[in-house]
Structure formats: C-alpha cells, structure tokens
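Annotated sample (chain length 262).
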Amino acid sequence: MAAFTGGEAYKAEFEPTAYLEYFKFGQGTLGDEFLTFVLKHYCKTFTLGAVTGHTLTDIGSGPTIYQLLSACESFKEIIASDYIDQNCQELLKRLKNEPGAFDWTPVVQHVCELEGDRNKWAEKEGKLRGAIKCILKCDVHKSNPLDPIVLPPADCLVSSLCLKAACKDHSPYRAALRNISSLLKPGGHLVLSGDLGTSFYMVGPKKFFCLVLTEEFLRGALSATGFAIQEFDVLSRDDDTMQEICHFSGMYFIVARKEKAI
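Output written by the structure step:
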C-alpha cells in the first residue's frame, strides 16, 4: 500500500502559512505554473457565462481564495468550507483583512487583468468578501459533507486540490464524489482543478502523501458518479525542477454537469 497522509495528520501538522508560500504569484514557485493554468480557466468558465447561478459551494477551500475570484462575478452567494480548523481560521483572517493575513494582491490583479481591467483589484476583493456568506467545516467522507449543516443544493460546486489529499485510493475518491454531488442541484455544475501524477507535496518541512490521479481515472470516476464532462483540459509538465517539493506530471481543469443521482 502506497504511503498516504490521513486527516488526523493534517489537523496536527498542516501549516497554512507554509502552504501559502506556493501562492506568492510571480516569485517563481511551483504555484506560478498552477495559477497561470487554472486562473485563465476559472475566468473563462465564470465570466463568459458558461457557468452561472445564485449559490456556489467550494469544497475544501483550504486557506486560499484564487478559485473564487472569478466565481464571485457570476454567483451572489459563496459557501467556503474545509476539513481543518486552521485553514478556516486563515481564510477568515484574509476575508476580514486582519493584520498578518496572506497578501493575495498579485493574484487578484492577475485575475482582473484576465477579466479586462487590472486596476479593479480592490473592487474585486470587496466583491468576494461580500459574496462569501460563511466558512463551514467539511468532510467529504460523510454522506452530507457539511454535516451537521444542511443547505439547499447549490448551483455549482468548486473543488481544487482537495480530493487527492482526502482520499486514500480510488474507491474512497468515487465515494467522495458521490457525497459532494449530494450538495449540487441536478443540472448544476462541478468545477474541479488540480494536478496529475502527484504522490506527495511539501508544506514547509512536512511531507504530505496523497492519491496519484490520472486523466483516465478522473474521467471514469465522474462518469460513474452521474456527471457529464463538458470540458477536460490537461497541461502536461515536462520540467523536472523542484520535484523534491512536489512531484507532478501535469495539471487539469474540469467542468462537468450533474446529470443524475448515483
């Protein structure tokens, strides 16, 4: 059995401020590659009218907001969520603009540039703060991942870099997809992004092992869970630098429509 880092280790050892080092955009980190890839897709998906609605739920937000910056243009209400308290606290600190919060300004400016006006970054931050209505605890292994909270089904679910870290192998991953699907309206959209071929990633000095994902598995898992894939874009990565920090072979962005309940 391959190594895997479980939820209790995340609660005890995951340090949000160390993880956020990946998202210092423009400083040559691995996060630059990932953000450049996914942000253009989020922009296209949410600002060109492809996916819109009233409520969007983010599954496994972590301490990050990049995945919601374009979404706040198309959804009036956003629900953020995460499994560990320290991520929820870090996210709340940023939304309240408290001292010591991570500076997302370069990322927000880049998103605004993609959307047509880099100078609207302060307005964008205000709009996102207004759209996020709450930050909830989330466990994708529960039939209701937001238990004990019960919410009306959302128009859209977003999840970025979450399920590979939460699921030890393929069977729990498919079960987690079914569980989060219960939070989505029939006909609603699931927007997934992440990396392929990753077996581990470093957060500060700590190594976190995760489920290795492939395009073939993701396509099959989504189809088996009642989703119709509308977009599946993969960017392969040949650069072998910084592989001691995070070994991955590519990145993916998926838009899928919930066709039926499984």
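Annotation: Strands lie at 53-58, 75-82, 132-137, 154-160, 184-196, 200-203, 206-209, 227-236, 250-258.
Annotation: The longest strand covers residues 184-196.
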